[in-house]
Design goal:
Distance between the termini: 53 Å
Strand content: under 5%
Shape: globular
Helix content: 55-70%
CATH topology of the largest domain: MetI-like fold
Number of helices: 14
CATH architecture of the largest domain: Orthogonal Bundle
Largest sheet: none
Order of helices and strands: HHHHHHHHHHHHHH
CATH class of the largest domain: Mainly Alpha
Number of domains: 2
Radius of gyration: 25 Å
Length: about 290
């Protein structure tokens, strides 16, 4: 069997553009990974080694004492119970906030995509306007409203706050995703006699798994990393992990324990990192699916 060799010059494997692209990607990766590297190695060093000033060097004596102290005995003001108190507070805030905001946002996006209720375009436009207004301007009016309602400085109040501020984005994501689905699915279900909730539960939600993962990643990242809303609305007994981290860093007396500060910072960042790396491929699929049709 004769094999026909391709004629003409072969494409170059390397070119100045390709080299420049890889150089840019490498520099960008180093730019974002360098602070993470410094935080990790600093948290694994003793204070004697940190005082030596070799910030980029690997620890000569590996120790997790800073991590243990940051978790269980670092002082967050007057209390020295570590950042674990803030961790469990953040979990109590995170779980209901994510569930409620995604449940309501997906239902609202479904209604705006297929049922076309009266004033749907106006409602959707209002949600989008609110989504792009800085939420800081709503803090004082919400504090007054929540104080009058008796839910300010409570766990219920901070869950409501995160649900409210998450609804515009969640509605936009699910509305665009459901709008990209074939309308024949909805029409066939209606012909078969399925109602509003039955179609949503049996057809739309199973098809929206990639978008649900995207919504979970966005909400977990936003709610877990929040500082100002938790500080204002959560109350002293429900302060999230980010507020406790700020207290650890800023309430140190005498010598500043940089290894403990770095360990506490890494502990605070673990949950969003685990969620993202555990479902990153679903995130890309969901974003691509929601961008097909708007």
């Amino acid at each position: 069997m004769n094999v026909i060799e391709p004629t003409g010059p072969r494409p170059k494997r390397t070119s100045p553009a390709r080299v420049g692209l890889y150089a840019f990607l490498a520099i960008s990766a180093l730019f974002f990974l360098a602070p993470l590297y410094v935080m990790v190695v600093t948290s694994l060093k003793t204070m004697d080694e940190i005082r030596g000033g070799y910030i980029l060097s690997l620890p000569s004596e590996l120790t997790f004492a800073a991590w243990t102290k940051a978790w269980s005995s670092a002082c967050t003001g007057l209390n020295c119970n570590g950042i674990r108190v803030g961790f469990f507070n953040s979990v109590r805030i995170l779980v209901p906030s994510v569930i409620v905001s995604i449940a309501v946002g997906s239902l609202t996006g479904y209604a705006l995509s297929f049922w076309r209720v009266r004033g749907a375009d106006l409602i959707f436009g209002a949600l989008m306007v609110v989504a792009f207004i800085p939420y800081q301007i709503f803090i004082y009016p919400l504090v007054r409203i929540f104080s009058m309602a008796g839910i300010n400085q409570t766990l219920f109040g901070i869950v409501i706050i995160h649900t409210i501020f998450g609804l515009p984005t969640m509605t936009l994501l699910f509305r665009n995703y459901f709008a990209s689905l074939p309308p024949e699915l909805f029409k066939a279900a209606r012909v078969d006699g399925a109602g509003f909730l039955q179609i949503f539960r049996s057809i739309m939600l199973p098809m929206a798994i990639p978008m649900i993962v995207v919504a979970v990643i966005l909400q977990v990242t936003g709610i877990w990393n929040d500082f100002i809303l938790g500080l204002v609305f959560a109350g002293r007994e429900n302060l999230p992990m980010t507020v406790q981290l700020n207290n650890i860093v800023n309430s140190t007396q005498g010598e500043r324990a940089y290894n403990v500060d770095m360990a506490a910072t890494m502990l605070t960042a673990l949950v969003p990192l685990v969620v993202y790396f555990g479902s990153g491929r679903w995130f890309v699929r969901g974003i691509a699916a929601g961008a097909v049709k708007g």
